[in-house]
């Protein structure tokens, strides 16, 4: 004879813990440790509480920090998280530079990484100053330096502006950015080239949508005849996903003048190249 299965009634999952057995002293200790920067896992082990109990106590006190904020508090790191809220010349420049050379990781990691050539380390220090960040610029590779920050606020803001962790293949300039010379100067400083070797030239490499938008920007601002992007021959990249555009001679001067004239934030070596092209015609080259 087949036995009947016993059916038990399951209580619905409660997202909050019952705090009736938690003393005020215990609650205060949780608040004290957390506001000092301790992680929830540390508090869990130290006080012998469940994670749900800790979260319920913090929520009842109106304390709600994301992991990146708590991490900075724990290690004494500083960061101005609202730097990209206002789109001004400086923030637009750094958004453009991140658009070219930055790496925004997947959700829940909330990391934004910027790695550039060792010779441009001073530029990364400018970026640090802009962020009001006290983290150290680190040299990871033989010829590169990097600054990695963790911020849910900045990560979310960049996502609002079209960034994702696959931007090398999918990047499209956001409507709020694509008409800004400061944004495009940042992009050129990151992924462009400024040359004065036999012929004056400015170039940009990126996704097809990025190159099209830059061509349209130059055409509308300067009246330069629109070009058609060509596949990039940049070594180490899948040329099927990257395109490029070049401006030569007088057109290159016009483009550089539009981007760099009276600007405040720029990559020093490319700015100096702009001055050489416009003013002195020195025969040197920058990539």
Which CATH architecture of the largest domain?
Answer: Roll
Q: From the alpha carbons, calculate the radius of gyration and give it in angstroms.
A: 26 Å
CATH superfamily of the largest domain: Homing endonucleases
CATH C-level class of the largest domain: Alpha Beta
Number of strands: 9
Q: The biggest beta sheet, please?
A: 5 strands, antiparallel
Strand order of the largest sheet: 7-8-6-5-9
Helix share bin: 40-55%
**In whole angstroms, how far apart are the ends?**
83 Å
Question: How many domains make up the coordinates?
Answer: 3
CATH topology of the largest domain: Endonuclease I-creI
The poorly predicted ranges are 281-287
Describe the structure.
There is one protein chain. This protein is of the alpha+beta class and 287 residues long. It is 44% helix and 16% strand. The protein has twelve helices and nine strands. It has a five-stranded antiparallel β-sheet. The chain has a four-stranded antiparallel β-sheet with strand order 1-2-4-3. A hairpin with a 6-residue loop joins strand 1 and strand 2 (111-117).
What's this, in brief?
The protein has 287 residues and is of the alpha+beta class.
């Amino acid at each position: 004879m087949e036995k009947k299965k016993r059916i038990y009634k399951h209580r619905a999952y409660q997202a909050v813990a019952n705090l009736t057995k938690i003393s005020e002293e215990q609650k205060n200790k949780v608040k004290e440790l957390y506001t000092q920067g301790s992680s929830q896992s540390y508090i869990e082990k130290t006080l012998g509480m469940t994670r749900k109990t800790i979260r319920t106590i913090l929520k009842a006190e109106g304390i709600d920090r994301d992991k990146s904020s708590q991490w900075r508090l724990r290690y004494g790191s500083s960061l101005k998280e609202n730097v990209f809220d206002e789109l001004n010349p400086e923030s637009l420049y750094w958004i453009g530079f991140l658009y070219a050379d930055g790496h925004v990781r997947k959700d829940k990691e909330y990391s934004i990484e910027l790695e550039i050539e060792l010779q441009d380390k001073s530029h990364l220090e400018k970026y640090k100053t802009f962020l009001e960040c006290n983290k150290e610029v680190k040299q990871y590779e033989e010829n590169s330096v990097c600054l990695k920050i963790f911020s849910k606020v900045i990560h979310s803001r960049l996502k609002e502006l079209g960034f994702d962790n696959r931007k090398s293949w999918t990047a499209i300039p956001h409507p709020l950015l694509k008409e800004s010379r400061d944004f495009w100067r940042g992009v050129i400083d990151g992924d462009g080239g400024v040359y004065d070797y036999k012929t004056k030239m400015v170039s940009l490499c990126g996704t097809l949508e990025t190159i099209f938008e830059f061509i349209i920007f130059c055409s509308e601002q300067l009246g330069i005849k629109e070009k058609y992007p060509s596949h990039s021959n940049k070594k180490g990249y899948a040329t099927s996903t990257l395109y490029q555009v070049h401006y030569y001679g007088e057109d290159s001067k016009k483009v550089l003048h539009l981007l760099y004239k009276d600007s405040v934030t720029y990559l020093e070596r490319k700015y100096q190249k702009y001055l050489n092209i416009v003013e002195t015609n020195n025969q040197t080259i920058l990539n």
